[in-house]
UniProtKB/TrEMBL annotation, chain A:
SMART domains on file: PbH1 (SM00710)
Protein's name in the database: Right-handed parallel beta-helix repeat-containing protein
Gene3D superfamilies: Single-stranded right-handed beta-helix, Pectin lyase-like
Residues in the signal sequence: 1-25
UniProt KW keywords: Signal
Chain ranges of the Right handed beta helix domain: 148-294
Lineage per the UniProt record: Bacteria, Pseudomonadati, Pseudomonadota, Alphaproteobacteria, Sphingomonadales
NCBIfam families assigned: beta_helix_1 (TIGR03805)
Entry-linked Pfam families: Beta_helix
Length: 404, 342
């Protein structure tokens, strides 16, 4: 009896702690197709109160303007991600807004709908802590094109981010892009035919695992860039992913940093410290399975740290790689080495430990101001003792509870 | 466009003047407590049956205004009787609870000069809230459009070009996208350096806004060469048209591009040789937001001159290129000393 009694008390208390108010929470269901279907959907996202669910009926909305959500603890739930039975937000005729859906409130749960053909980014969340992206599809349906939007799933300036079981295709920058955020998990997702499949940029504490990154220009990128409010990216674990056949020619608009990613890149680490790349399966990445480089552009940010430091590569499986290195001078180096370069490529800047039983090619450019034409490629042995393993990311229980 | 504004004002006065009804005074209970009144008339901020501001609403203007598809704007401040605003150390006007900032949008040659929409920014005890109203076809009242709306509008641009656009009335969230400061809604326009009152209202304004008479250098008027150099006017334009998002607490904080009047105009964070961050197609294949000496290689210009939603800046509130504004910014960049990279 005592136990049962405690449970009765504990349940409502837990609900309060989670910020849920089950008595008041309601479901607002919206249907596609009517003349004012778009306005109704946006109104529902405005009128929703914390705890509410906005439910998208199956079908297709043809949207002319971006949608936005600024109410905390709201669930936006559709009927699925496939064209036949799912809830489809089609932005092919978009006339305004920089993204399809913008979320600016905390504790939001997005699940079971698709966002197609936005002119800019797909779904962006900014300053939206504890956001959960679950079972979503963001796609540019014509496949890789420079005119596609930049980011598919785009959380930025947020603490606690979960991207779980999403599919992203066709982004002209990164399919899944997490920027200037802390405590991040990207898992069980598929990124295909984007310039960058998954990108973690200027962020701290991220786990990227059990994803499939295939047919992108670069599979998984861990970047740090100068002159941004949050920089000094560190503590990123990239593990147990399948990173294969990332040989799509780069279709990013020039000027963007990802436009410099060579086709055929598996995992690319630029700047950052304490990045672990382990337990991944690599195959058929024409330039390299793993590339570790400094930020080699001119910059004027005295606080910026351009070198990769304490990068660990261990326990990965390496299939074929390095047979079509798509960086300047790559073909010549491959020819000199008998047709291909080793699966791990390092520009020689910063420091890394590579304990995989595969070759490492260093370009021997330790100073990031040295031009690539000064490269003196040679095999390098980077095996050794790795720094202490990172503890891994733990998200608040309320986030994991969303998807159970 | 000043003539246009006068025409609208005249039309409004006529519409109001024909009415024999007594002018209602603003309803403070509705202003402070009603969540989202369906009709604009419920506030009592306008004389019945039209868009003429009620007595006691203080009309104001700005040295450099935000560009909104060449719309003429009529602005007003309502403060509860007896309450006063103050000017803080940064020159921002701090309004009392119960204040409403009112902004009506219209074109002299569209919709018979009647306004198309009116936006309210209301200061309540729990903060500012934004509500967009679209005027009814008969021009006698306006109706809440929290989900936003697209309205076909035709008008003549200053250079004579006739333009037909799908004008976007922002939804309630989009109001906040521009008015967000640290995640909460805040006014943008009423800053000491930019606000101005017509001669008929100056005394009244000085009595209601403490510190209004403080001497500060006025923001240049972007289109008046007598008010500042090309660079100064360009910076005024960027402050008003961009910096509400492009500041460290605004909607574009993650871009690292900060365009406030107070920012260092030579710095990389002002766009000078700043590489794109999350610009996507907005880079237009260019390396820098501002390439000194080279407007044609500056994607800040590219984005300003685009109407494609994946490229255009600002992201909200523009379906027309502001040719004259872009020309000023081109002139500013062209006048910069070219750097070694070019």
């Amino acid at each position: 009896m005592r136990v049962r009694h405690a449970a009765y008390i504990a349940l409502p208390v837990a609900a309060i702690l989670l910020g849920l108010s089950p008595a008041a929470a309601k479901t607002i269901r919206v249907e596609p197709g009517g003349v004012d279907a778009n306005e109704k959907l946006q109104e529902a996202l405005i009128l929703a109160e914390p705890g509410d669910v906005v439910e998208l009926a199956p079908g297709r909305w043809t949207l002319t303007d971006g949608l936005s959500l600024d109410v905390a603890n709201v669930t936006l739930r559709g009927a699925g991600i496939d064209d036949q039975n799912g809830s489809i937000l089609d932005f092919s005729g978009q006339q305004g807004a920089g993204e399809g859906l913008l979320v600016t409130s905390d504790d939001v749960f997005l699940t079971d709908f698709a966002v197609l053909n936005t002119k800019g980014d797909g779904i962006k969340s900014k300053g939206a802590d504890r956001i959960v992206y679950h079972q979503l599809r963001v796609e540019w349906t014509a496949g890789p094109k420079e005119t596609n939007g930049a980011y598919g799933i785009y959380p930025v300036e947020s603490t606690d981010v979960l991207v779980n079981r999403v599919v992203v295709r066709g982004a002209s920058d990164a399919g899944i892009y997490v920027g200037q955020s802390k405590n991040i998990v990207v898992r069980d997702s598929i990124a295909t035919e984007n310039v960058a499949g998954i990108e973690i940029e200027n962020s701290y504490d991220a786990d990227v695992h059990d994803n499939i990154a295939t047919k992108n220009t670069g599979g998984i990128l861990v970047f740090d860039l100068p002159s941004l409010p949050m920089q000094g990216g560190h503590n990123v674990r990239v593990f147990d992913n399948i990173v294969s056949d990332n040989n799509t020619p780069n279709f990013a608009p020039k000027g963007n940093i990802v436009a410099s990613v060579p086709a055929g890149t598996g995992v690319l680490v630029m700047a950052n410290r304490n990045v672990e790349i382990s337990g991944n399966i690599f195959d058929e990445n024409g330039t390299a399975n793993v590339m570790i480089v400094g930020y080699r552009y001119e910059h004027k940010d005295p606080k910026y740290q351009p070198l990769p430091k304490a990068i660990v590569v261990a326990d990965n499986l390496h299939g074929r790689a390095g047979y079509a290195p798509a960086f300047p001078g790559g073909a010549e180096i491959a020819a000199a080495l008998g047709g291909s370069i080793p699966p791990v490529l390092w520009d020689g800047a910063g420091d890394a430990v590579v304990n995989d039983a595969v070759g490492v090619l260093s370009l021997n450019l330790p100073d990031v101001s040295m031009p690539q034409s000064d490269a003196k490629p040679s095999p390098a042995d980077l095996s050794g003792d790795a720094p202490a393993a990172l503890p891994g990311v733990r998200l608040p229980e309320s986030m994991e509870a969303r998807i159970r | 466009m000043k003539l246009g504004a006068a025409a609208i004002a005249a039309a409004l006065v006529c519409a109001g003047g024909a009415m024999a009804l007594p002018p209602p005074s603003p309803n403070q209970t509705v202003i402070e407590e009603a969540a989202m009144p369906r009709k604009l008339s419920e506030f009592g901020l306008f004389r019945a049956g039209g868009a003429e501001l009620s007595d006691g609403v203080l009309p104001y203007d700005l040295h450099t205004p935000l560009f909104s598809d060449y719309a003429d704007k009529a602005r007003g401040i309502w403060m509860p009787p007896g309450a006063k605003a103050t000017v803080d150390a940064d020159g921002n006007v701090q309004f009392p609870v119960g204040t409403v900032l009112i902004k009506s949008f219209g074109w002299a040659d569209a919709n018979d000069g009647k306004p198309v929409e009116t936006r309210l920014l209301i200061h309540r005890s729990d903060g500012w809230t934004a509500l967009p109203y679209v005027w009814d076809a008969d021009g006698r009242d306006a109706t809440l459009a929290i989900g936003g709306r697209r309205i076909p509008v035709s008008f003549d641009e200053p250079d004579g070009t006739t333009r037909s656009i799908s004008y976007a009335v922002p939804n309630k969230n989009q109001c906040k996208e521009c008015h967000a400061l640290d995640g909460a809604i805040a006014p943008i326009g009423p800053k000491l350096r930019n606000i101005r009152f017509g001669a008929a209202y100056r005394t009244n304004a000085a009595g209601r806004i403490e510190g209004l008479s403080r001497q500060v250098a006025a923001l240049p008027a972007w289109d008046n060469p007598a008010s500042g150099s090309v660079a100064e006017r360009a910076r005024a334009y960027l402050d008003v048209n961009c910096a509400h998002c492009h500041n460290p607490k605004g909607s574009a904080s993650n871009s690292g591009l900060f365009l406030r009047w107070t920012d260092d105009p030579d710095g990389v964070n002002y766009g000078i040789e700043k590489r794109p961050t999350a610009a996507g197609r907005g880079s237009g294949g260019m390396d820098f937001a501002v390439a000194p000496g080279h407007p044609e290689a500056s994607f800040l210009i590219y984005r300003l001159e685009s109407l494609d939603p994946g490229i255009a800046m600002p992201e909200v509130g523009r379906a027309t290129v502001h040719k004259e504004g872009a020309a000023l910014l081109r002139q500013w960049i062209a006048g910069m000393e070219t750097r070694s990279a070019h």
